[in-house]
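Question thread 4412

I'm putting together a teaching handout and wanted feedback from people who do this every day. The idea is simple: show students a protein as raw sequence, then show them the structure tokens that encode its fold, then repeat with a second protein so they can compare. Below is the first pair exactly as I plan to print it.
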Amino acid sequence: MVFIPPSQAIALTPGMLRSVHHIALNVKDMQASRHFYGTILGLHELTGDEVPTTLVELVAAGKVANFKTPDGTILDLFWEPDLTPPDSDPSRGFTRAYHLAFDIEPQLFDQAVEVLRRCEVPIAERPVTRPTGRGVYCYDPDGFIVEIRCDPISA
């Protein structure tokens, strides 16, 4: 490892950051959010020894829930019962974060859209098809946009 004096370091170089460690969202209704991310989207909720030791007490108190995405990224939900979005219309952007996107196999995309519809998850717009693949945007219980997307089907 090479030490670079702070006076000479002007930026991190590509590859220094290894991965996204976790994403944290504030949620108003923990049960609704746990249902959305765990049951509807099928993310694995961490329990028991899987919970980071720094969060064990908060999880036990119902103030935090942790989910693991298939690529290993952790999604932390922090219960903020007084959370009020700046705008009651979720179609208006109310945060600098635009959306959270999950990737799915192209063959499973239509099934995912149907699950959202059957679970009465509000969909922001009908599924879209682009050169980069297909996507559907929906709202989590707090109005945050979640995308489910897939690459184009290979010929």
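The second pair follows. I'd like the answer to focus on this one:
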Amino acid sequence: MGPYGSVGGGMGWGGWLAMGLVLVIFWALVITGIVLLVRSVGHRHGVAREPAGTTAALHILDDRFARGEIDAEEYSRRRQLLSPDWRRSI
């Protein structure tokens, strides 16, 4: 007899099967945790997004008005053209 009480070595097929399942479950949990962590860090909750072009154009328009390059009438006209509500009515 061997040191573990039997000739084949201690753990039977049931032990190897259980160990394999535990290993698969462990790695599945680790990978799921990493995916959830990456998603939560990369995603900002509750932030409404406008199209990037519209936002950039409005910032440029605001800067031009602040620097005095355009007057209030021109600013209002262009801002109305760039607003999302105006584009929906077309």
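Top answer:
Good format. For the second protein you could add a caption like this: The chain has a mean pLDDT of 81. The chain is about 70% helix and 0% strand.
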